[in-house]
Write a structure and sequence with these properties.
Mean pLDDT: 93
Largest sheet: 6 strands, mixed
CATH architecture of the largest domain: 3-Layer(aba) Sandwich
Strand content: 5-15%
CATH class of the largest domain: Alpha Beta
CATH superfamily of the largest domain: Type I PLP-dependent aspartate aminotransferase-like (Major domain)
Number of helices: 10
Strand order of the largest sheet: 2-7-6-5-4-3
Helix content: 40-55%
Order of helices and strands: HEHHEHEHEHEHEEHEEHEEH
Shape: globular
Number of strands: 11
Number of domains: 2
Radius of gyration: 21 Å
CATH topology of the largest domain: Aspartate Aminotransferase, domain 2
Length: 327
């Protein structure tokens, strides 16, 4: 993990990997040639542009193969938020059912959309139970709707998120959550599903290259990382529950533990921990300009560089901080 040691000059503990991840060295190397050497516009018709366009399609094919879909099913976006918006607004207008755990961008995109017939269900499910149920309902009613959209931005590093594994129709991915570059994501659409999408711009070739490599690494390592981070999360959860009995802590994924302390506003706790060198968040980072409800939990999210020592120090700082704030 030498690549990570130089990221923070101060001795800080970063536990906000659900918000952003550092770019892996392998990913950076994959991107470098497209910044200066093969910088050509892939929409150009001259030789260099055509060559780069073929390489974009190579990366698209790689991503499609990792997800078990045709390459035409992969639509590149500027990130998970744009993919969510396109998924929601691209479906035939109708009633949209959104599970509470979904990203705020899904709720925002659904504003003003209504209808008597349910055309889309949006979720963050990591198994295929919901998808299978929806498919059975569609077959029973002889209908093409509702479609199932899964936002796998936070879960692609730890679960099989192929469309078949999730039994879903539309999938959101975000490279920034996969130790890939910021500014690139994908909307993956099952063959036969039609979405009304806006015209696409020029493909950001370096970002696409990094996205493909990051997803490849995530798929390769996801089982081992899920086991390792689940163990760290359980240790963290058990320690917090024992040392701060009034804390309401729950593990919501292999790498995320939410902690709520009654009587302490989440933003105050986040800032207090930040002052002592621990970076965490309260709610999605893209919503940080909005005040969080008083019952919003503080989110501790662990990543590839997180080790047991980090967890132990964070637990100590957290307990001391909470005790000082409730006196």
């Amino acid at each position: 993990m030498d690549w990570f040691k130089n990221l923070f000059k101060k001795k800080r503990i970063y536990l906000d990997y659900a918000s952003a991840t550092p770019v892996l060295p392998e990913v950076k190397r994959e991107m470098e040639k497209y910044w200066t050497k093969n910088f050509y516009n892939p929409n150009a018709i001259y030789e260099e542009g055509v060559r780069v366009k073929k390489e974009v399609e190579k990366y698209r094919t790689k991503i499609a193969g990792l997800l078990g879909v045709a390459k035409d099913s992969v639509i590149f976006t500027s990130g998970g938020t744009e993919a969510n918006i396109l998924a929601v607004r691209g479906v035939v207008s109708g009633k949209i059912i959104i599970e509470p755990e979904c990203h705020p961008s899904v709720f925002d995109a659904a504003k003003g959309i209504s209808g008597s017939k349910t055309t889309l269900i949006s979720s963050v499910a990591t198994d295929n139970k919901l998808g299978r149920k929806i498919r059975e309902e569609r077959k029973k009613n002889n209908s093409a709707y509702p479609l199932l959209h899964i936002d796998a931005s936070q879960t692609a590093s730890y679960f099989n998120i192929s469309l078949e594994a999730l039994a879903c129709d539309i999938l959101t991915l975000d490279a920034a959550k996969l130790y890939g570059p910021k500014g690139i994501g994908a909307l993956v659409i099952r063959r036969g599903v039609y979405l009304n999408l806006p015209p696409l711009g020029t493909p950001p070739v370096p970002l696409i290259a990094g996205f493909a490599k990051a997803l490849e690494i995530a798929v390769r390592d996801r089982e081992a990382e899920a086991i390792r981070l689940s163990s760290l999360s359980r240790d963290f959860l058990e320690s917090i529950s024992q040392l701060v009995p009034h804390a309401q802590a729950v593990q919501i994924s292999p790498n995320i533990v939410n902690v709520f302390i009654p009587g302490i506003l989440p933003e105050y706790l986040v800032l207090a921990l930040d002052h002592k060198g621990v970076s965490v968040s309260a709610g999605p980072a893209c919503e940080s300009n909005k005040s969080e409800p008083a019952d919003t939990p503080v989110r501790f999210s662990f990543g590839r560089p997180t080790i047991k020592k980090d967890i132990d120090i964070a637990i100590k700082i957290f307990c001391e901080t909470v005790q000082s704030m409730i006196k």
